[in-house]
Specification:
112 residues, alpha+beta, 5 helices
Length: 112
Amino acid sequence: MKAADDELSRVFHALADPTRRAILSRLNAGPATVGALAAPFAMSRPAISQHLNVLERAGLIERTATAQWRTCSLRTEPLDEASAWVERHRGEWNERFDLLDEQLRRMKGEIP
């Protein structure tokens, strides 16, 4: 099965990993070098680089190079789009859960 490759799918894929979410949380405090981002994790630099590549492809971070330092910055626009998608569907999901709850209560005889 081929994974979807639209922008929203790339964002949710990137957010599905706890390491990537931790990197985004760190970047919420401000830009950081790749070394600073890698420091809290017990994994190789290539592994961190792969996580950064996923985040960059999703548009969630931006990398810049100054001399020998590579700095990463958070981009919030894709998060705003993902949040808007969830909000658009939240009402529909809540309505379905309410209907399911009502039907289950009716089956139990709790409501006529």
